[in-house]
Amino acid sequence: MLKKVGLGLLVVFIVCQFFTIDKSVPEHTKEEDFFTHHVATEELQILIESACYDCHSYKTEYPFYSNIAPISWWLAEHIEDGRKHLNFSKWTTYSDKKADHKLEECVEELEKGEMPLEEYTYTHAEAKLSEEQRELLMIWFKAQRQQYKVN
Protein backbone atom coordinates (compact mmCIF):
# COMPACT_ATOMS: atom_id res chain seq x y z
CA MET A 1 0.00 0.00 0.00
CA LEU A 2 2.77 2.41 0.97
CA LYS A 3 4.53 1.64 -2.30
CA LYS A 4 1.39 2.58 -4.29
CA VAL A 5 1.01 5.85 -2.38
CA GLY A 6 4.66 6.69 -3.03
CA LEU A 7 4.31 5.86 -6.70
CA GLY A 8 1.13 7.95 -6.90
CA LEU A 9 2.86 10.93 -5.30
CA LEU A 10 5.79 10.57 -7.69
CA VAL A 11 3.42 10.57 -10.68
CA VAL A 12 1.65 13.69 -9.36
CA PHE A 13 5.02 15.39 -8.82
CA ILE A 14 6.13 14.56 -12.37
CA VAL A 15 2.85 15.77 -13.87
CA CYS A 16 3.19 19.04 -11.91
CA GLN A 17 6.47 19.75 -13.72
CA PHE A 18 4.51 20.30 -16.94
CA PHE A 19 2.77 23.31 -15.39
CA THR A 20 5.55 25.88 -15.49
CA ILE A 21 5.44 29.47 -14.32
CA ASP A 22 5.45 32.48 -16.62
CA LYS A 23 8.89 34.11 -16.50
CA SER A 24 8.23 36.55 -19.32
CA VAL A 25 9.01 40.20 -18.68
CA PRO A 26 6.03 42.54 -19.07
CA GLU A 27 6.45 45.48 -21.39
CA HIS A 28 8.25 48.42 -19.82
CA THR A 29 11.03 50.85 -20.68
CA LYS A 30 14.32 51.62 -18.98
CA GLU A 31 13.10 55.18 -18.52
CA GLU A 32 10.39 53.93 -16.14
CA ASP A 33 12.94 52.44 -13.71
CA PHE A 34 13.46 53.88 -10.24
CA PHE A 35 17.17 54.57 -10.76
CA THR A 36 16.51 56.58 -13.89
CA HIS A 37 14.93 59.19 -11.62
CA HIS A 38 16.81 58.67 -8.35
CA VAL A 39 20.57 59.03 -8.29
CA ALA A 40 22.23 56.72 -5.79
CA THR A 41 25.79 55.79 -5.07
CA GLU A 42 26.91 52.56 -6.68
CA GLU A 43 26.92 50.92 -3.24
CA LEU A 44 23.32 51.95 -2.55
CA GLN A 45 22.10 50.91 -5.98
CA ILE A 46 23.70 47.48 -5.65
CA LEU A 47 22.23 47.13 -2.16
CA ILE A 48 18.70 48.00 -3.31
CA GLU A 49 18.94 45.82 -6.40
CA SER A 50 20.23 42.80 -4.48
CA ALA A 51 17.78 43.13 -1.58
CA CYS A 52 14.65 44.34 -3.41
CA TYR A 53 14.66 43.98 -7.18
CA ASP A 54 14.10 40.20 -7.48
CA CYS A 55 10.58 40.57 -6.08
CA HIS A 56 9.88 44.25 -6.70
CA SER A 57 10.91 44.78 -10.33
CA TYR A 58 10.98 43.09 -13.72
CA LYS A 59 14.71 42.34 -13.24
CA THR A 60 14.02 39.09 -11.41
CA GLU A 61 16.88 36.61 -11.43
CA TYR A 62 15.12 33.28 -11.04
CA PRO A 63 16.99 30.66 -8.97
CA PHE A 64 17.32 27.04 -10.10
CA TYR A 65 14.40 25.94 -7.93
CA SER A 66 12.06 28.24 -9.87
CA ASN A 67 11.79 25.35 -12.34
CA ILE A 68 10.56 22.84 -9.76
CA ALA A 69 6.82 22.70 -9.08
CA PRO A 70 5.19 23.28 -6.63
CA ILE A 71 7.96 25.53 -5.28
CA SER A 72 7.89 27.48 -8.54
CA TRP A 73 4.18 28.23 -8.10
CA TRP A 74 4.76 29.65 -4.62
CA LEU A 75 7.68 31.70 -5.91
CA ALA A 76 5.70 33.08 -8.86
CA GLU A 77 2.83 34.07 -6.58
CA HIS A 78 5.25 35.76 -4.18
CA ILE A 79 6.90 37.75 -6.99
CA GLU A 80 3.54 38.76 -8.45
CA ASP A 81 2.41 39.97 -5.03
CA GLY A 82 5.68 41.85 -4.48
CA ARG A 83 5.39 43.62 -7.83
CA LYS A 84 1.76 44.49 -7.09
CA HIS A 85 2.79 46.31 -3.91
CA LEU A 86 5.93 47.97 -5.29
CA ASN A 87 7.48 47.76 -8.75
CA PHE A 88 10.73 49.66 -9.23
CA SER A 89 10.59 48.92 -12.98
CA LYS A 90 7.36 50.93 -13.34
CA TRP A 91 8.32 53.76 -10.98
CA THR A 92 7.38 56.63 -13.30
CA THR A 93 3.84 55.30 -13.65
CA TYR A 94 3.26 56.28 -10.01
CA SER A 95 1.80 59.68 -9.20
CA ASP A 96 3.95 61.87 -6.93
CA LYS A 97 1.65 61.09 -4.02
CA LYS A 98 1.87 57.34 -4.65
CA ALA A 99 5.67 57.43 -5.16
CA ASP A 100 6.04 59.31 -1.87
CA HIS A 101 3.86 56.71 -0.15
CA LYS A 102 5.90 53.84 -1.65
CA LEU A 103 9.11 55.39 -0.32
CA GLU A 104 7.45 55.84 3.07
CA GLU A 105 6.51 52.14 3.00
CA CYS A 106 10.11 51.21 2.12
CA VAL A 107 11.28 53.02 5.25
CA GLU A 108 8.58 51.39 7.40
CA GLU A 109 9.34 47.88 6.13
CA LEU A 110 13.06 48.38 6.80
CA GLU A 111 12.39 49.81 10.28
CA LYS A 112 10.24 46.81 11.21
CA GLY A 113 12.78 44.40 9.70
CA GLU A 114 10.09 42.92 7.46
CA MET A 115 11.97 43.44 4.20
CA PRO A 116 13.69 41.72 2.66
CA LEU A 117 11.71 38.68 3.74
CA GLU A 118 13.63 36.32 5.98
CA GLU A 119 12.83 33.30 3.79
CA TYR A 120 14.30 35.18 0.81
CA THR A 121 17.57 35.82 2.62
CA TYR A 122 17.99 32.08 3.34
CA THR A 123 18.87 31.50 -0.30
CA HIS A 124 20.10 35.01 -1.14
CA ALA A 125 22.79 35.89 1.39
CA GLU A 126 23.61 39.11 -0.48
CA ALA A 127 20.13 40.40 0.40
CA LYS A 128 20.61 40.02 4.14
CA LEU A 129 21.00 43.56 5.47
CA SER A 130 23.11 44.58 8.43
CA GLU A 131 21.72 47.20 10.82
CA GLU A 132 24.09 49.76 9.27
CA GLN A 133 22.82 48.95 5.78
CA ARG A 134 19.20 49.20 6.96
CA GLU A 135 19.90 52.58 8.50
CA LEU A 136 21.67 53.79 5.36
CA LEU A 137 18.73 52.72 3.19
CA MET A 138 16.16 54.32 5.51
CA ILE A 139 18.04 57.64 5.49
CA TRP A 140 18.36 57.54 1.71
CA PHE A 141 14.70 56.62 1.08
CA LYS A 142 13.61 59.41 3.45
CA ALA A 143 15.78 61.88 1.54
CA GLN A 144 14.26 60.76 -1.79
CA ARG A 145 10.78 61.55 -0.46
CA GLN A 146 11.62 65.27 -0.55
CA GLN A 147 11.13 65.43 -4.31
CA TYR A 148 7.57 64.13 -3.94
CA LYS A 149 6.36 66.30 -1.09
CA VAL A 150 2.83 67.26 -2.02
CA ASN A 151 0.76 69.80 -0.11
Automatic annotation (TrEMBL):
CC annotations in GO: exodeoxyribonuclease VII complex
Boundaries of every Haem-binding domain copy: 10-145
GO molecular function ontology, one term from the record: exodeoxyribonuclease VII activity
Domain of life: Bacteria
GO biological process: DNA catabolic process
Name under which the protein is recorded: Cytochrome C
